[in-house]
Amino acid sequence: MKNYIFLAFAILCESVATSFLKASEGFTKPLQTIIFVVAMSASFYLLTHAIKVIPIGIAYAIWSAVGIVLISLIGYFVYKQTLDLPAILGIVLIVIGVIVINVSRNQPPIKILLKSNLYFV
């Protein structure tokens, strides 16, 4: 169970890092660049703990799907970016794919993600 907590925090750190990557404006803003580097480093560090138990393909699928949703929401609310219908549909299909993978494996990660309010779909 602890490994799924590591994965959840890794996803959160990666989402923060990616949002600061945008804010760094090509690494021209030092503070935003430093936050990006620290958050991305923390994300990979936490991911290394998660994949000790969670298969790397499954962990990465969860990371990708939840990260895409979080970054899309950050883009919408912080950067005033919008997604068109095909992009939204694609994101929904990615999330559905991860849910199918987790349900078919009969493992708890999706239940933990749902309980931790990390889903936004």
Description:
The structure is a single chain. This protein is mainly α. The chain has helices at residues 2-23, 30-50, 56-77, 85-105, 109-115. The chain is flat. The two termini are 23 Å apart. Residues 116-121 have low confidence and may be disordered.
Q: What descriptors fit this protein?
A:
mainly alpha, 121 residues, 5 helices, disordered C terminus
The fraction of residues in strands falls at: under 5%
What is the SS-derived class? mainly alpha
Individual helix count: 5
Which outline best applies? flat
What is the first-to-last residue Cα distance? 23 Å
Oligomer: single chain
List unreliable stretches of 5+ residues.
116-121
Helix content: over 70%
Helix-strand topology string = HHHHH
**Cα-based radius of gyration, to the nearest Å:** 15 Å
| Sheet having the most strands | none
Total number of strands: 0
**What's the average pLDDT?**
88
Topology:
Blueprint: H1 2-23, H2 30-50, H3 56-77, H4 85-105, H5 109-115
Helix pairs in contact: 1-2, 1-3, 3-4
Gist of the model:
Helices cover 77% and strands 0% of the residues. With 121 residues, the chain is mainly alpha-helical. The protein is flat, with a radius of gyration of 15 Å.
